[in-house]
């Protein structure tokens, strides 16, 4: 494609590809100099040109002998250029985005199932995977970077996909990854502490979430009005609003919740359509996830029967409340990695736990440190015993992370915990401690198939390791 066909320039250079990482540049590429917190893409521009870039997008002029396109915001320019380069595929798709601290992944899978129950081909983009038709690709980020994202959209459109349901992270909004995409609906799940390593404070984190609900991004807002930020967005947004909740009056709401280890049921009222919801995952938070998906379905015109059937058709979401029943105890594997998320999962388990709850958990390295002591307090309070261990330490010493978690446990005077740095050893110790009817919760990694240590993603999966131990021990 010629450069002037998708960028504001007179240059007719033939562009063969786009990149914002100089190591991925090939001859004929256009390179974008993105400015981040810890690096400046302008310092890699010369390397990009040496590798074959024929033009660069900059926020300041550089001493380089190549075509330079100067813009105010290279991230915004990248998002728009990537869309145009791939033929604006999002305009051939109906896209729904889900944002919020917790529940995004489960909600997107429920919504995908509802849309398919209504007879439409639906793709999914999120933390677990990219899925459409018979294709299932590993996810790189919760919300892919614009070049990858637009390529995925193009592939989905070419495959006959009609709808796409995707997770939209606060990072993606702050970094302008979804600029230029018009969402049929944007949904908000909830808001609690997370990502303060990036945003600095809760106000900045909230502002990123709120930025999604503008006419530049979406046609409709689907909001949880039992959440204070949801109410705030409802009062401020100029979009058409569909609300959902349990405690406050809303367009889509549920009553008469019943829960067991094997799922939940409740009566849903969806703009005066009333029916019985049955979902194969338990927990009050999953009632909210199903209500969110139902409210989106209302906003985009899906039939009520598809909502009921679509929710029922979801058998499992990888890494979300996955139950492994052994002869000795039950094991639950969940992605919960925030203070609010792990509190929700433990309270849900307590609803049906016949005996003790033993929790294995940690906190990620080089991420929000403010939640570590808080999570320690919550887990020690809501568990009968907990093992504090490693969870993607990245470039931090795991012992340091564990000590910060321990500080919260000690602050409330609890002694019901054991620190074990090695995650495998911690899981094995928890399973050895467990007795009949106990429940072992392994939290934080969910469906992840790696452990991130010193820049290397070492192959590892909680569920596979539990099955390995069960096989060895014969339980």
In summary, what is this structure?
With 475 residues, the protein is of the alpha/beta class. It has 15 helices and 23 strands.
Sum up the structure in keywords:
475 residues; alpha/beta; 23 strands; 34% helix
Characterize the structure shown:
With 475 residues, this protein is α/β, with parallel strands linked by helices. Helix content is 34%, strand content 23%. It is built from 15 helices and 23 strands. The chain has helices spanning 45-50, 74-85, 104-117, 146-158, 170-174, 196-199, 202-210, 228-236, 284-300, 304-313, 339-350, 370-382, 398-411, 423-433, 462-473, and strands at residues 17-19, 29-32, 55-58, 67-70, 94-99, 122-125, 129-132, 135-138, 163-167, 185-188, 220-224, 240-245, 252-260, 263-270, 273-279, 322-325, 330-334, 357-361, 385-388, 417-419, 439-443, 450-453, 456-459. α11 (339-350) packs parallel to α12 (370-382). The radius of gyration is 23 Å and the shape is globular. The N and C termini lie far apart (60 Å). The model has no long low-confidence stretch (mean pLDDT 95).
The SS-based structural class is alpha/beta
Strand percentage lies at: 15-25%
> What is the helix content?
25-40%
Q: Mean pLDDT, as a whole number? A: 95
- The tally of strands reads 23
Instruction: Write down the overall geometry.
Output: globular
Largest sheet: 11 strands, mixed
Terminal-residue CA separation? 60 Å
* Rg, nearest Å: 23 Å
Number of H- or I-type helical stretches = 15
Secondary-structure topology with pairs:
Layout: E1 17-19, E2 29-32, H1 45-50, E3 55-58, E4 67-70, H2 74-85, E5 94-99, H3 104-117, E6 122-125, E7 129-132, E8 135-138, H4 146-158, E9 163-167, H5 170-174, E10 185-188, H6 196-199, H7 202-210, E11 220-224, H8 228-236, E12 240-245, E13 252-260, E14 263-270, E15 273-279, H9 284-300, H10 304-313, E16 322-325, E17 330-334, H11 339-350, E18 357-361, H12 370-382, E19 385-388, H13 398-411, E20 417-419, H14 423-433, E21 439-443, E22 450-453, E23 456-459, H15 462-473
Parallel strand pairs: 1-2, 2-3, 3-4, 5-9, 5-10, 6-9, 10-11, 11-12, 12-13, 17-21, 18-19, 18-21, 19-20
Antiparallel strand pairs: 6-7, 7-8, 13-14, 14-15, 16-17, 22-23
Helix pairs in contact: 2-4, 3-9, 3-10, 11-12, 12-13
């Amino acid at each position: 494609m010629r450069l002037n066909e998708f960028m504001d320039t007179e240059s007719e250079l033939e562009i063969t590809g786009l990149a914002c990482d100089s190591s991925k540049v090939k001859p004929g590429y256009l390179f974008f100099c993105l400015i981040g917190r810890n690096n400046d893409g302008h310092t890699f521009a010369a390397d990009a040109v040496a590798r074959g870039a024929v033009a660069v997008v900059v926020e300041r002029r550089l001493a380089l002998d190549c075509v330079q396109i100067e813009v105010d915001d290279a991230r915004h320019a990248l998002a728009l250029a990537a869309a145009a380069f791939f033929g604006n595929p999002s305009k051939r798709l109906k896209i729904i985005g889900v944002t919020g601290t917790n529940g995004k992944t489960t909600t997107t899978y429920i919504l995908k199932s509802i849309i398919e129950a209504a007879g439409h081909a639906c793709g999914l983009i999120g933390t677990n995977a990219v899925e459409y038709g018979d294709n299932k690709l590993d996810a790189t980020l919760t919300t892919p970077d614009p070049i990858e994202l637009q390529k995925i959209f193009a592939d989905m459109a070419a495959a006959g996909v009609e709808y796409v349901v995707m997770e939209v992270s606060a990072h993606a909004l702050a970094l302008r990854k979804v600029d230029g995409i018009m969402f049929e609906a944007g949904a908000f799940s909830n808001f609690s502490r997370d990502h303060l390593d990036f945003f600095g404070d809760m106000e900045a984190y909230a502002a990123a979430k709120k930025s999604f609900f503008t006419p530049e991004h979406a046609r409709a807002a689907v909001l949880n009005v039992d959440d204070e930020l949801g109410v705030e967005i409802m009062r401020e947004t100029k979009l058409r609003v569909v609300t959902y909740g349990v405690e406050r009056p809303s367009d889509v709401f549920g009553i008469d919740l019943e829960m067991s280890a094997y799922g939940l049921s409740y009566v849903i009222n969806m703009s005066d359509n009333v029916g019985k919801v049955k979902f194969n995952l338990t927990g009050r938070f999953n009632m909210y996830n199903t209500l969110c998906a139902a409210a989106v379905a209302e906003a985009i015109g899906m039939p009520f029967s598809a909502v009921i059937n679509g929710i029922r058709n979801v058998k499992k979401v990888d890494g979300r409340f996955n139950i492994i029943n052994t002869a000795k105890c039950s094991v639950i594997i969940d992605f919960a990695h925030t203070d609010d998320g792990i509190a929700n999962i433990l309270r849900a388990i307590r609803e049906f736990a016949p005996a003790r709850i033993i929790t294995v958990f940690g906190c990620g390295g080089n991420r929000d440190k403010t939640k570590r002591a808080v999570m320690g307090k919550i887990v020690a309070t809501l568990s009968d015993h907990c093992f504090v261990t490693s969870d993607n330490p990245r470039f931090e010493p795991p012992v340091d992370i564990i000590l910060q978690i321990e500080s919260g446990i000690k602050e409330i005077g609890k002694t019901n915990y054991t620190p074990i740095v090695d995650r495998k050893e911690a899981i094995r110790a928890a399973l050895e401690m467990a007795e009949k009817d106990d429940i072992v919760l392994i939290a934080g990694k969910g469906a992840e198939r790696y452990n991130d240590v010193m820049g290397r993603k070492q192959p590892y999966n909680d569920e596979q390791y539990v099955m390995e131990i069960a096989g060895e021990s014969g339980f």
